[in-house]
Amino acid sequence: MSPLVVPELVRQRALSNGRAAREWLDALPELVGELARRWELTLGPAIEGGTASFVASAVATDDRPCVLKVAMPLDPDEQLGFSRSVHAHRLAAGRGCVALIAHDDDASAMLLERLGPNLHALGTPLGSVLDTIADTLLAYWRPVDVADVGGLRSGRDQALWLAEFIERSWPELGRPCERTVVDRALALCERRAAAFDPLRAVLVHGDAQGWNTLDAGDGTAKFVDPEGLWSEPEHDLAVAMREYNEPLLAGDTARLVRERSEHLAERCGVDAEAVWEWGYIERVSTGLAARRDFDDDDGLAFLEVAARSR
Question: What span, in angstroms and rounded, lies between the C-alpha atoms of 309 and 190?
């Protein structure tokens, strides 16, 4: 097998997250080789774009194109996240989401159907990206019986987890934004946690953005990388709200953020205020995570949009 080429963003994340992540990086070539032998795969090149997993194209022995994904679980919570993602794949069963072929819990690895390029690789304009994400979510969302929830994290639990992460990370990272931004995010986390209603909850993807929305080859799109949540549908529009900061910073930020929340909410038939609130929470938590994990200034852009939002 040719030497394993790990995408730079994956390598950066591993090198900035301590001994366990560096050991994962060192062991990755052997692990990928063992999985390829067991699942009888001919491996192709790594797929760029993600940060938390090594992903490579592959071909199975029946000539079926597929994708090998090996997650980088940095702590027990991320290991549980892998299990939630597997469960979400099973519940979605290929509807609005890439189909799961096989998985290995010990290796945090999955074998998945191969889809086409993502929306950004296709050069899709931003307005169409947002509409396609919304339309694909409508295909993906489905009620989940309480008996089938399993390890899915509820919207209430996710809001409380994000509040803890924001409160802890802000001082650790040298207070990269005003305290008022953090206080507002914490108040909104409390608000969304209190609003959780099992009767409205659906299977939520948790990271529905253009990089995770791929051409399914039949005029529709499917998601990859579901996080596996059980929450209100407005929660799933938060990532489309938090991403794509440049056009928001180039104009009247507060107005443009509100207009995006209203457009996405109308497209999906949900509450615009809840979409805005989840988007604010995600923007602050993601900005802090980006400041922790990467060397560029993207994290500051997330936080700046939050500071300008009203």
Answer: 19
Question: What separation in angstroms does the CA of 28 have from each of 40, 88, 202?
Answer: 18, 25, 35
Q: What is the pLDDT of residue 295?
A: 66
For the stretch 103-120, pLDDT in tens is 999 999 999 999 999 999
* Chain CA centroid to CA 122, Å: 19
CB of 103 closer than 8 Å to CB of 86: yes
Are residues 67 and 57 in contact, defined by beta-carbon separation less than 8 angstroms? yes
Collapsing DSSP to helix, strand or coil, 169 comes out as helix
User: How large is the average pLDDT for residues 247-273?
Assistant: 98
CA separation for the pair 7, 235 (Å, rounded) = 30
Residues 6 or more apart whose CB falls under 8 angstroms from that of 30 comprise: none
Neighbours of 172 (CB within 10 A): 10
- Contact assessment for residue 226 and residue 144, using Cβ atoms and an 8 Å cutoff: no
Between vectors from CA 157 to CA 151 and to CA 163, what angle results, nearest 5°? 140
Q: What is the mean pLDDT of the chain?
A: 93
Only one residue has tokens 């929306």, namely 119
The pLDDT of residue 206 is above 90 = yes
List the domains of the chain with CATH numbers. 8-113 (3.30.200.20), 126-308 (3.90.1200.10)
To the question of pTM greater than 0.85 for the whole model, the response is: yes
**DSSP for 188-218, written as a single string:** HHHHHHHH--TTT-EEE-S--SGGGEEE-SS
